[in-house]
Each structure stands twice: as C-alpha cells, then as structure tokens.
Amino acid sequence: MVQTLPQPDVLRCYFDDGFQPRLPAMSLRWEAAAQERLWELPDNVCIAGPPPHRFGISIRRRAHDTYAVRLLWNQTGLSWPALTRAELLGSALSPLLGAMGTDLWHLLDQPVSAEACLPRKAA
C-alpha cells in the first residue's frame, strides 16, 4: 500500500553550498501526519525517519535512459552519475516529489543534456 504524504510548507528556498555547482534546495515543514518510515532511494540506499526538512534535487538527462542525479536529504548529500528511469520511478522520490507538487515523470522527460553530447578531452 502506497502511503500518500501531506503537502509540506516551504519555509525558504536557498542554494546548498555542499554541492558544486550549488544545488537549489528548500527548508520544509511537514504535518505531524508525515510519519517516520523507510525511504528507499536509488542504488539500494535507504534512509529511516520522517520526510526531509532540508531537500534539494537535480536531475539531468544524459542519454535516452540515463540520468545524473544530485540529492540533498537533511545533512546527507548523494550523487549518482547514471541512474535509469526505472530506478528513479521505483524509489521514494516519486511520492515525495508528488507531495511537493512536482511530477517525476515530467522531470524525466527532459531533453538529453547538451553537455552530455560534448566530446571529452583526451587525458
């Protein structure tokens, strides 16, 4: 059974300096109904606890089914250079983003990043 999350209050928006380039992030306040649970993230990463109070995400499409993802979850910063659509949709990110009014499907349908198409420099 999928638990729906209440919509959080956005207390402030800011740029987190723990990432380079800096990551757009938010300070959130969740209702008491947003209970603790096990949050299953991509690559078998799990976080136990309530929804995040500090949250930021960047999803950049690198190829047809490859996404570079940077995630801020409270004090934890995670970065994945190559996740698939199925890995992202099967994670707790979809319901979490949905509670914030963001459709993960929409984020995944972006065009392939032009940066991913640039030739790499020889070593």
Report on the architecture of this protein.
The strands form two sheets. This protein has a five-stranded antiparallel β-sheet with strand order 1-2-5-6-7. The radius of gyration is 15 Å and the shape is globular. The chain has helices spanning 85-89, 93-99, 104-108, 114-117; strands at residues 9-16, 23-29, 37-41, 45-49, 54-63, 66-73, 76-83. Residues 116-120 have low confidence and may be disordered. The chain has a domain at 22-107. It is 17% helix and 41% strand. It is an alpha+beta fold and 123 residues long.
Give helix % range: 10-25%
Using only C-alpha atoms, the radius of gyration works out to 15 Å
Global mean pLDDT = 89
Task: Report the span from N to C terminus.
Answer: 50 Å
Strand coverage percent:
35-45%
Backbone structural class:
alpha+beta
The residue ranges in which pLDDT falls below 50 over 5 or more consecutive positions are 116-120
Order of helical and strand elements: EEEEEEEHHHH
Order of neighbouring strands in the sheet with most strands? 1-2-5-6-7
Major sheet attributes = 5 strands, antiparallel
- Count the DSSP helices: 4
The beta-strand count equals 7
Shape designation:
globular
